[in-house]
Design goal:
With about 325 residues, the protein is an alpha/beta fold. The chain is built from eleven helices and 14 strands.
């Protein structure tokens, strides 16, 4: 048994405190939204701390805010995470989001943080026409190659399938991508991470497709569950045996008037799930994918869960053993191949 990192396989007990869903490098410009006339300057403006208050009103107005590609910045941010007690993270930047596995390996080496790279396909909006016409067999072959040989033209191997992007309603390509993920899981034993429509209710349909294609739901993660503050819905999804990832801590942005949950809301709902006995199936992280989420730009950085959320959970009575499960044991279990 092993965990596949960008620097090679390691023993599972070497992982330590692990963030289950992050982006160290990403090109998320597929999510760009044309800003309204009064904010047109944001489209191509350099991201500065002065612009942060405006971008918090919609981080997707800025093209440059949607790109994390600076090696030195990423290394520095991960060193701060390491100093806070972090030891590993999962980078969910897969096809459609501009993966750069060689750079990711160097960042891991320089920061001394274990990085597990994801592979597979993000949502249809991020794919080229040539990719969109591929069927599940073709897509599956590429995923298996990433896991067993290397991502792209490199020998940097992925360690998890995902984030597999889905929309609500599902696009035909996304159905093929889900089936491909299930096929690749059957061949490799790797876990699957799903990016659902964050404010939709397509989770169960996605799980039905995966299960019908032979996926092991016990080895499947449903991400971004903390964008919908509905404990009953969480319970319905958890009943399928998957892991629930509360992975947008620190993200309290507004998208054209639609507000994300506050961290206090996420904590409240997370605790309700702990009280229902789901501790063994919970993961926590931050899903950093904007410049303004980095400490360099005034954000909370990769250490927010450890420095900001864990103390609040402890103050609310969450036991050290429960925190260890969510940050150490559960990530270790799902990432072990």
């Amino acid at each position: 048994m092993y965990v596949q990192t960008v620097n090679g396989p390691i023993a599972p007990d070497q992982l330590g405190v692990t963030l289950s869903h992050e982006h160290v490098l990403i090109d998320f410009r597929c999510a760009w939204i044309v800003p309204p006339p009064q904010n047109s300057k944001l489209a191509n403006a350099e991201v500065t701390t002065e612009l942060v208050p405006i971008l918090r009103g919609n981080p997707q107005y800025s093209l440059l805010n949607l790109v994390l590609d600076d090696e030195d910045t990423a290394t520095g941010e991960l060193k701060l995470f390491k100093q806070t007690g972090g030891n590993a993270l999962v980078d969910m930047t897969d096809i459609g989001l501009g993966p750069d596995p060689s750079k990711l390996r160097r960042i891991s080496q320089k920061s001394n943080v274990h990085i597990v790279a994801g592979c597979g396909y993000y949502r249809h909006i991020a794919q080229t026409p040539a990719v969109l016409i591929k069927d599940s067999s073709e897509l599956s072959e590429e995923i298996v190659k990433c896991l067993q040989e290397g991502i792209g033209q490199t020998d940097v191997r992925a360690g998890i399938i995902g984030e597999v992007g889905t929309s609500d309603p599902l696009h035909p390509f996304e159905r093929e991508s889900l089936v491909a993920a299930a096929k690749a899981q059957n061949r490799t034993g790797a876990a699957i991470n799903i990016h659902p429509d964050v404010w939709g209710r397509g989770h169960l349909e996605v799980l039905n497709i995966l299960e019908a294609a032979g996926a092991d739901l016990d080895r499947t993660i449903m991400s971004h569950m903390d964008e919908v503050m509905d404990p009953e819905w969480h319970t319905q999804v958890a009943a399928r045996g998957v892991y629930l990832s509360f992975d947008t801590f620190g993200s309290e942005f507004t998208y054209d008037g639609v507000e994300e949950p506050k961290d206090s809301d996420r904590i409240r709902v997370l605790i309700s799930l702990l009280e229902k006995g789901y501790c063994d199936r919970l993961l926590i992280s931050q899903d950093i994918c904007y410049k303004i989420s980095l400490i360099r730009y005034g954000g909370k950085g990769y250490s927010h869960v450890l420095s900001g959320i864990v103390p609040q959970l402890k103050a609310r009575g969450v036991a050290d053993s429960e925190l260890r499960k969510m940050l150490v044991e559960n990530p270790c279990r799902i990432l072990t191949i």
